[in-house]
């Protein structure tokens, strides 16, 4: 038997996303429409039963009034025939008798129980007995008292029949009331049941409809993370499957571009390193005076050649490192970590270098949660702290602060070195920029380094959705990194 996921995967999709939405809306509406139809049918039945009850009660009331009229007519006719033997009175009495019999038959057709049927039969029997007594031939001598007693018994029985008719009306009203309560309870149960079924169908359809959208989202995240190895497949309506095919085409194109870029960098690196290696080896041989003694001027020229070849090789290697850093910035692996722990860990890696220069570390880190890539964030802190160690004079202080503020995490690295000139605070994060420390004696004295560390740090910080800047007007370097405590991916998922 297929489970729910396998069953959902086996369900076919309509040709378009609009058709998928319409189908989902229709399926959700089915139990609600069914509940409405059932409610209307029950209401119509209740209305029909109400009409029947009203009609039955009306018949019972009319029968009661007619019974009173017939008994009164029978009483008058019986009293008159007791006193006078007039054929015309007998004819009138026979007409009233027939009318009473017809009325009794109508009352018998009403919904009455056995006790009520017995009371009606007793009334009909007493009336028939009185009629036979008054119309028999030859007519016996009649006793007015005996006839009056019979009439009294007939009237008493008629009252029982009238009570029967009243009970019929009461019973119909009670039955109608009970039926209405039953229908009301049934409708309430039906409303809850149909709503629950509609919600279950809606939840199932939500997963069914959201699956291709989720696959597209995963595909976009895959491309954004520079993962081109897995093919992109989107299941769903034809228009979304077409979009999936276009995304897979984009993946293949990006994979080709990435392959070509890497091949180009490898070729450039190889083509540059080969003659550069020969140049370095030649400069080393000349510097070591293998080819013979050199004049002081020649020694100076050879030293310049050797130093610049080393710098050129280092620049080539750092350029490749920068390309790898850009690739790493595009593929963050977000994790929840403690801000104070990651800061303390990064500072601990530079304690020996700081101690060798007689520097003092001051850590002021709050314990707060942060969503970030720990390796990339540690690389940012390594760059900032290593710069602080490099440019802080012996006996100085390096302060590392970390705190949470308004949904952001703020990390500051402050040193007591010469600081950064105001005009270079924006350019210092540019690729291969090497500025001058504030207060240097020579305007042409360059800061040692390739100019890649801060550029890489900025790329990694911006990949997290954060900012990095140089702040402060006083002496010393003061770098501030501001990161969102929740990643942009988590915020997008929450929305």
**Overall pLDDT confidence:** 77
Total strands: 7
Q: What share of residues are in beta strands?
A: 5-15%
Instruction: State the distance separating the first and last CA atoms.
Output: 37 Å
Shape: rod-shaped
How do the SSEs run, as a string of H and E? Answer: HHHHHHHEHHEEHEEHEEH
Q: Strands of the biggest beta sheet: in what spatial order?
A: 2-4-5-7-6
Class per helix and strand makeup: alpha+beta
The rounded Rg comes to 53 Å
Largest sheet: 5 strands, mixed
Estimate percent helicity. Answer: 55-70%
Low-confidence stretches: 437-447, 490-495
Question: How many individual helices?
Answer: 12
Protein model, in words:
The protein is of the alpha+beta class and 495 residues long. It is 68% helix and 8% strand. It has twelve helices and seven strands. A five-stranded mixed β-sheet has the order 2-4-5-7-6. A two-stranded antiparallel sheet has the order 1-3. A hairpin with a 2-residue loop joins β4 and β5. α6 runs antiparallel to α7 and α10 packs antiparallel against α11. It is rod-shaped and about 180 Å long.
């Amino acid at each position: 038997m297929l489970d729910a996921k396998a069953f959902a995967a086996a369900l076919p999709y309509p040709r378009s996303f609009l058709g998928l939405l319409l189908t989902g809306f229709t399926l959700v509406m089915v139990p609600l429409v069914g509940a409405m139809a059932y409610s209307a049918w029950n209401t119509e039945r209740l209305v029909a039963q109400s009409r029947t009850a009203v009609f039955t009660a009306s018949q019972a009331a009319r029968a009661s009034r007619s019974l009173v009229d017939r008994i009164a007519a029978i009483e008058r006719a019986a009293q008159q025939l007791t006193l006078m033997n007039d054929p015309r009175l007998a004819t009138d009495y026979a007409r009233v008798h027939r009318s009473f019999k017809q009325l009794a038959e109508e009352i018998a057709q009403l919904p009455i129980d056995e006790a009520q049927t017995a009371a009606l039969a007793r009334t009909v029997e007493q009336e028939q007995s009185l009629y036979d007594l008054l119309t028999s031939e030859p007519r016996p001598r009649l006793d007015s008292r005996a006839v009056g007693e019979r009439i009294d018994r007939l009237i008493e029985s008629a009252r029982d029949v009238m009570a029967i008719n009243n009970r019929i009306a009461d019973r119909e009203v009670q039955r109608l009331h009970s039926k209405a309560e039953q229908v009301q309870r049934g409708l309430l149960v039906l409303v809850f049941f149909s709503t629950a079924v509609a919600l279950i169908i809606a939840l199932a359809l939500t997963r069914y409809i959201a699956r291709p959208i989720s696959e597209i989202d995963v595909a976009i995240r895959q491309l954004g993370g520079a993962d081109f190895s897995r093919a992109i497949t989107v299941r769903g309506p034809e228009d979304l499957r077409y979009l999936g095919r276009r995304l897979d085409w984009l993946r293949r194109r990006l994979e080709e571009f990435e392959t070509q870029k890497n091949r180009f960098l490898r070729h450039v690196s190889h083509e540059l390193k080969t003659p550069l290696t020969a140049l370095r080896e030649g400069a080393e041989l000349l510097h070591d005076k293998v080819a013979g003694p050199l004049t002081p001027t020649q020694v100076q020229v050879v030293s310049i050649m050797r130093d610049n070849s080393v710098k050129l090789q280092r620049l080539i290697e750092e350029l490749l490192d920068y390309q790898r850093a850009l690739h790493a910035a595009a593929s963050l692996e977000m994790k929840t970590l403690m801000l104070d722990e990651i800061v303390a860990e990064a500072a601990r890696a530079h304690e020996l270098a700081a101690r060798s220069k007689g520097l003092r570390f001051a850590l002021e880190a709050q314990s707060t949660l942060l969503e970030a890539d720990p390796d990339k964030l540690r690389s940012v802190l390594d760059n900032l702290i290593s710069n602080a160690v490099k440019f802080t004079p012996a006996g100085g202080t390096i302060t590392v602060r970390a705190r949470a503020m308004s949904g952001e995490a703020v990390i500051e690295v402050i040193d007591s070195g010469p600081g950064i000139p105001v005009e270079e605070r924006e350019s210092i994060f540019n690729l291969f920029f090497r500025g001058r420390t504030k207060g240097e004696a020579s305007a042409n004295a360059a800061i040692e380094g390739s100019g890649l560390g801060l550029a890489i740090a900025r790329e990694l910080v911006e990949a997290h959705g954060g900012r990095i800047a140089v702040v402060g007007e006083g002496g010393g370097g003061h770098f501030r990194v501001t990161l969102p405590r929740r990643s942009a991916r988590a915020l997008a998922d929450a929305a």
